[in-house]
Each structure stands twice: as structure tokens, then as C-alpha cells.
Design goal:
- By secondary structure, this protein is α/β, with parallel strands linked by helices.
- It is built from 11 helices and 10 strands.
- Helix 1 links the parallel strand 2 and strand 3.
- Helix 4 packs across helix 5 and helix 5 crosses helix 6.
- The model has no long low-confidence stretch (mean pLDDT 97).
Length: 256
């Protein structure tokens, strides 16, 4: 169905593998178009509970396809940046949890793609960075906005101004990656985490994601008010009755 992405489902887990290994899975027009189509499919899939994004071969996504965008004019560059940023925002705003299983290079657009996911799990071989300034450009797919929100302003400036690559362990230390695994364990670790999400109420998980994502953009009082409302809305769902009843009856909950 997709030219540059292999997509498969295992129960309620979707696994999307960017599949341009000879180009280190670099983002070109074809990959972006496939990702747009994939996210449209995911948005409509009411059975899906978690989406995992990963890359084929030794790279997650090693940035943009420089050959394709080298000769952009001003209007083309602006359109490309807006298109990629809009796509990554759609990923960020998915109602279900998303996990980036970063198996190798996550540079430039690859790092930006990983940061659009809720969780970043890294292989020991993973490398992260925003090297765009060495090419005479800034990050263009919202990296200057998501990186400081992940790791803090000072560290984001250091990484962006230097363009240096960091290891998976350093990414974990600064809060960019949640955890680091041996390469052969990475995908299974992502699936295990996905299943830990799926055992809980999908409604509650969705509302909790709303609280965190929207709340981080609000002042504290408005964010608390948002949480109060999401908490109350849980009581309109059968999941709340099932979860609390199962707890009192000392049995596993069976959510819809």
C-alpha cells in the first residue's frame, strides 16, 4: 500500500517501519506523502491502541533528502517546512499513544519525527542530533520548538547551535529518550511498553494524554481546570465503572 513504509498490525498495536535503508530512510517527498497517508489511516482506525514508528536497517531517519531540497527557492522551502511541521503535529495530536523506536540515526527531520511521538525508546546504536546549521539552514520540522520542550532551553541551544550528534545514553540522560536497549531488544521493548498502555482504559489514557499535552501549553490554573474536566468526563465512560468495580472485586478489569 505504501511505497516507502512497511505497515503491519499486531492486535491493537500498529508498527510503521520507514523503509528506504539505502538512503538511511531520509525524508523525501515520497516518505512524507506515505506518512501523511499512514496517519490518515491511523486517525480513522478505531481499533488501534498504540502506534510504533521505527526505521529499516541502521537508521531511524537520517534527516531530509538534501539532494531533493538543495535547490528550493524561498516559496518551496516555506511550503516544505509547513508541510512537514503539519504532518508531525498530526502525529503529536493522535489520540492514541505513539512510540518512536529509534534504531539508528535520528538526525534533523529524524530527530524531529521522534520528538513528535509521546515516547522515545532508543537502541544502543542510536544517534540523535539537529545538524541543520552545518547545512546553512535551521531545523524546519518544528525541531527548534520541540527540543527545548523536551530537554530545556540551554541544552536545546547547545545541540542546535553546534549541530553535534549525541549517543543514546546521552539522549536518555538529558530526557530526550525514555530508555535505551540492545538493538535486538528494541522493538520487543516498544511492544512491551505498548501492551502496558493497552491493559488500561483507552478512554482514561486518551484523556490523560490530552491533560498533559494541552496542559503544558497553559498556565497552571487553566491546566488544573482542564484536568478537573477530563477527570469528570471519565465518569461518563463505562470504563470508569468497570475499572473501579474490578478493583473492588479483586479481578482484572476488562475495558471496551
Amino acid at each position: 500500500m505504501y511505497e516507502t513504509i512497511r505497515y503491519e498490525k499486531e492486535g491493537k498495536i500498529g508498527i510503521a517501519t520507514i523503509n528506504r535503508p539505502k538512503a538511511l530512510n531520509a525524508l523525501n517527498g515520497a516518505v512524507v506523502a506515505d506518512l501523511e497517508a499512514l496517519i490518515s489511516e491511523v486517525e480513522k482506525d478505531t481499533e488501534l491502541g498504540v502506534l510504533i514508528l521505527t526505521g529499516e536497517g541502521r537508521s531511524f531517519v537520517a534527516g531530509a533528502d538534501i539532494g531533493e531540497q538543495r535547490d528550493f527557492n524561498l516559496d518551496q522551502a516555506r511550503a516544505w517546512s509547513k508541510r512537514g511541521s503539519a504532518l508531525f503535529r498530526r502525529i503529536e495530536k493522535l489520540e492514541i499513544p505513539t512510540i518512536a523506536a529509534v534504531n539508528g540515526f535520528a538526525l534533523g527531520g529524524g530527530c524531529e519525527l521522534a520528538m513528535s511521538c509521546d515516547i522515545i525508546l532508543a537502541s544502543e546504536k542510536a544517534k540523535f542530533g539537529q545538524p541543520e546549521v552545518g547545512l546553512g539552514i535551521t531545523p524546519g520540522f518544528s525541531g527548534t520548538q520541540r527540543l527545548p520542550r523536551r530537554v530545556g532551553i540551554a541544552k536545546a541551544k547547545e545541540l542546535t547551535f553546534s549541530g553535534k550528534m549525541i549517543t543514546a545514553e546521552e539522549a536518555k540522560e538529558i530526557g530526550l529518550a525514555n530508555a535505551v536497549y540492545a538493538p535486538e531488544e528494541l522493538l520487543n521493548a516498544a511492544k512491551e511498553m505498548a501492551n502496558s498502555f493497552l491493559k488500561n482504559s483507552p478512554v482514561a489514557v486518551k484523556y490523560a494524554k490530552v491533560c498533559i499535552d494541552r496542559g503544558m501549553q497553559l498556565d497552571i490554573d487553566s491546566a488544573i481546570a482542564l484536568e478537573n474536566e477530563m477527570f469528570a468526563l471519565c465518569y461518563a465512560s463505562p470504563d470508569q465503572k468497570e475499572g473501579m468495580t474490578a478493583f473492588l472485586e479483586k479481578r482484572p478489569a476488562v475495558f471496551q
